Model the fold of this input.
Amino acid sequence: MTTIKLTMAQAVVRFMMAQKVETDNGIQPMFAGVWGIFGHGNVAGLGEALYHVKDKLPTYRAHNEQGMAHAAIAYAKTKNRQQMMACTASAGPGAVNMVTAAAVAHVNRIPVLFLPGDTFATRMPDPVLQQVENFQDMTITSNDCFRPVSRFFDRITRPEQLLTSLPQAMRVLMDPIECGPATLAIPQDVQTMAFDYPVSFFDEKVHRLRRQEPDFYELNDALKLIRQAKKPVVIAGGGVHYSGALKEFDSFVSQFQLPVGETQAGKGTLPWDHKHNMGTIGVTGAASTNKLCAEADLIIAVGTRLGDFASGSRSMINPDARIVSVNVASFDAIKHKGQALVGDAKLTLTHLSKALQGWKIDTSWSDKAEAERVEWQKVIDKVTTDRGTDLPSDGEVVGAVNRAAGEKDMVVCAAGGLPGELQKLWRTRYSRGYHMEYGYSCMGYELAGGLGAKMASPQSEVFVMVGDGSYLMLNSEIATSVMIGQKIIMVVLDNRGYGCIHRLQQFCGGPGFNNMLDDCLTIPEGAPKIDFAAHAKSMGASSEKVTTIAELEEALVRAKASPISYLITLDTDPDITTENGGHWWDVAVPEVSEREKVRQARKTYDAHKARQFKNL
Done:
């Protein structure tokens, strides 16, 4: 057996470079790069190893560990999980800063390889700088925080352990069912230890998407339910994108004239003006789709886990309707008492299309769906039109940005009120024109996520829509975008606080408290008015502040012509939201309160809970 002497860190890097993936564009590197912020836990080991291959495996320096991991997540999502990045940070706070992002990747089933530095495996200099000591268990370090938010976790205490650990990490990263973050905690001393690795361990490995055929019996059971249905609705989830099943999905719903509702992750499955695209679904969904779901006798859910926002907290769907759940993961397929149809969406939809020849739904149902679709488009037109008021609504801003976006451009967002407005109102014909992190709804994802999306799709203009609250949480990667020449267009909607939660607080009967800046504990002069344009300019971006929708549209023209990242900020109304569409969301209201508004909100809550109970 031929061997090569390498440090553990050098072996990790060489193994990563040997991993390839076959996509529609041919065989590509699996890892497009490494995000790294170096410190004493990784600079001498992994940092030195990455230096020697920087021309083949680029290392990107970020300004915040959580931010760089968000960028890696957005990259992999935009690439439909076919290519990915790795992230490394030093032992201690640098590593733990990535834990939130690991949770984002875990919830959204996105592959990222985390390589956090760790304390000394030998323990000779313990306790080292930034080491968290556990009084009862000496094997625990702060990196154990990654365990609950990783699909795969290992701590490498000997260099030869890579021989079994790295293949398992790759298995998880590329598995359509288990896909998610893999974490290898790498103690700083072990990174520098050498071992005679088999040369064959670094042979090129080409990965391909594994496609699971549906089970014969599950397929037949699903077909029985579908053939009985007269008023079905199809729900498109993110799994349609990850399976690459866009054509098969379009063919299936078009062949049988099926109305479709898209989840946050599924948006873009069909062009917005497709005859069978009813709009989005759920708590922040379109009235058209939600009305149909309340009457449907069958739901065909494709590639969705039917989270509470998609299902209206289990109270939106007709309680008498049956659910056929097409999903590659049995864990998701059995939710909501669904008839599981476990299998790859691309293959399973093809089977359904062939087996259902001759099946027809009620023409009255098709007519109703078309009427609802047309009415909903009128709502979008109205809500996104400039009213000419002093404080624009979020919907008006969405309309202006949407009109500025080209056919292959994308919008990126994550948390607050904007995801609801965007899900309802954003129109795209591009399958990747809508990029929303709403599995974890992580404030601070937006700007870093926009950077990662741009790196994955350099031909697209990437519009990042973000509220003042999320902007203030994490904005450092604006400087990174300028530094590495990855232009993003940022639109900051300043409503002076956390407007979305403020509205939710009032809906639950509470007074304005600790959400809007005017309702917070401040000095007598109040909270400062943030100059977001000046802040972005200080990090190297171009920027400007506008006051009206007309000015915003003019500024967007300048932003698109800019060679560098460009920020536009404007003040918006915190109280106006799109009232049409949407559905109840289960947010518990106190059973006992001194406030009459809370007691009334509890009565409303109990009524909705009764509907929810029928769907259990």
Residues 89 and 116 are 5 Å apart (CA to CA). The longest strand covers residues 31-37.
